[in-house]
Structure formats: structure tokens, C-alpha cells
Amino acid sequence: MSIIEVKDLNFFYGRFQALKNINLSIDERKITGLIGPSGCGKTTFLRSLNRMNDLIEDVHIQGRVLIDGVDIYDQGTDLQKLRKKVGMVFQRPNPFPLSVFDNVVYGLRVHGVLDKNTIEDRLQWSLKCVQLWNELKDRLEVNALSLSGEQQQRLCIARLIAIEPEILLMDEPCSALDLIATARIEDLMRELKKQYTIVIVTHNMQQAARVSDFTGYFLLGELIEFGETDQIFTNPADSRTEDYITGRFG
Ligand SMILES: Nc1ncnc2c1ncn2[C@@H]1O[C@H](COP(=O)(O)OP(=O)(O)O)[C@@H](O)[C@H]1O
Ligand SMILES: [Mg+2]
């Protein structure tokens, strides 16, 4: 079942067109990996799925992005609700310079959850989801910035999960992590997809091959090919995809 439907999406920074007529369906509770060389529009595409691009000046968008059947670019869209439903994890972990506790409950407070028991429950549940609870339960007051990079990235995921999103957008979430931490975050993603739809941008093809169910290949703002990960990596239909995955891309 698809949860996101992108239809004829064009995106412009000023007069520069960064996305060209993108059409794509993203399945619920699957991991969709987006690959392609630097500058091909992966981040722009990801940000168009929760209207983060709106924060950039002089941008222009055409087409539709339906989430649960509703066009998020409709006039009446509540952006706060949208970004609660479609959360984003960034390349560099960006915890707030606050305690672990305050980081995780931040979104709850923003969304008006004040009940102490609810907050405690959600805190524990979110930290357990990202497998940080045992490590941090006795240190909830430490500053999040004192954690390792991997812990910080997990904490950022916990912060999102605390407000019960449906979709997690991840923009090269492992690019600042070593191989072991990367493998652990990938394991976490496999766990999370039982409950969430994940769209991950990665410049690491092996990562896409390892974790994603579906893979899309972007080149110069176009979605060249999209399909099941096995097919994309073993039997690509487009020679440009093949050039990229076999490393022939210049
Ligand atoms: N804020 C911006 N203003 C103008 N151009 C941008 C901006 N962000 C990205 N671009 C351009 O859009 C294209 C796609 O960028 P991006 O989506 O970041 O690609 P990727 O994530 O695949 O590296 C690039 O040519 C980039 O220079
Ligand atoms: Mg990027």
C-alpha cells in the first residue's frame, strides 16, 4: 500500500530546476532508498515530502505530493501537523544543547502534551525504540551534546518518534558515523520499519542495497529508475542506473 504519491513534481530554486517531473509511489512500512551522485536533487526531493523547502527563499514547486491521499501542498495544510507526521533526520545529528530528557520530550511539549505520566511513558518508549534506554536511563540529565555521534543520531530519532510520526525521512543519517555505528543504525532502521515508513537518502550504494526494499536512482534532478532494490542492483532497466551502480559513472 502506498502512503506517499508524488505526481509530476518539478522544483525550482529561483530559475534553476532541481527536480524534473518526478513521479513515484512510496510504500507504507517499507524502506525506500534514494541514491545518486552529489547534487542530483536527493535532499531537495526529501525536503519536498514535508515542505521543509518552504523555509528556503525564492523556491517554486509544481505538481502534487499526496500523503495518505491528501495533497500536502494544498492551501489549508497545517505545517506543524505535517512535520509531526513526516519527521526528518539530518546528515549531522542535531540534538538541542539540552539534556537527553529535554531533547526527547521537546516535541511533546511543543505539541501541548503536559501530563507527566504520558511524558514519562513516551520518553521511555521512544528511548527503548532506538535502543538507548538501558544506556541512558540513569543519565537522562546529561547534555545531549556529550553523547557519541551514534547516540546523538539515535536520540534525534527518539525525539521524532516521541511525537508519533508516520514517516521518517533520513538524509544520509550515517554519513558522520563509522562502520560499526552505521551497521547499528541500519539494524535500528529494520526494526523501525515495522511501524514506520522510512525514506532514506544515501550516497552509499551498499547501504541502499543492504537496508532498502525499494531504490530510486536520481541523476541531474530526474528520477531515472525506481523499483525493488534487488532488481535495481542486479538487473537495472536503464543503462544510466547500471553505469552508476557498477561504478562507471564519471
Ligand atoms: N538552497 C539552495 N539554493 C539554490 N540551489 C540549491 C539549494 N539547495 C540545493 N541547491 C542545488 O540544487 C541541486 C540539488 O541539490 P541537493 O538536493 O542538495 O542534491 P543532493 O542532496 O543530491 O546532493 C544542486 O545543484 C544544488 O546546488
Ligand atoms: Mg544531499
Rg result: 18 Å
Instruction: Let me know the number of strands.
Output: 10
- Write out the strand line-up for the largest beta sheet, numbering strands in chain order: 6-7-8-3-9-10
Number of separate helices: 10
Q: What does the overall shape look like?
A: globular
Bound small-molecule species: adenosine-5'-diphosphate, magnesium ion
CATH architecture title: 3-Layer(aba) Sandwich
Low-confidence segments, given as residue ranges, are: none
Structural class, by secondary structure, is: alpha/beta
User: What characterizes the major β-sheet?
Assistant: 6 strands, mixed
How widely separated are the two ends?
37 Å
Q: Briefly, what CATH class?
A: Alpha Beta
Total discrete domains? 1
String of helices and strands: EEEHEEHEHHHHEHEHEEHH
Strand percentage lies at 25-35%
Quaternary assembly: single chain
The level of helicity is: 25-40%
- Mean pLDDT, all residues: 95
What does the model show?
- By secondary structure, this protein is α/β, with parallel strands linked by helices.
- It has one domain (2-245): 3-Layer(aba) Sandwich (Rossmann fold).
- It is built from ten helices and ten strands.
- Strands 6-7-8-3-9-10 form a six-stranded mixed β-sheet, sandwiched between helices. A four-stranded antiparallel β-sheet has the order 2-1-4-5, with helices on one face.
- Helix 3 (100-110) crosses helix 4 (116-129) and helix 4 (116-129) packs across helix 6 (149-161).
- The structure holds adenosine-5'-diphosphate and magnesium ion.
- Magnesium ion (MG) binds at residues 42-43.
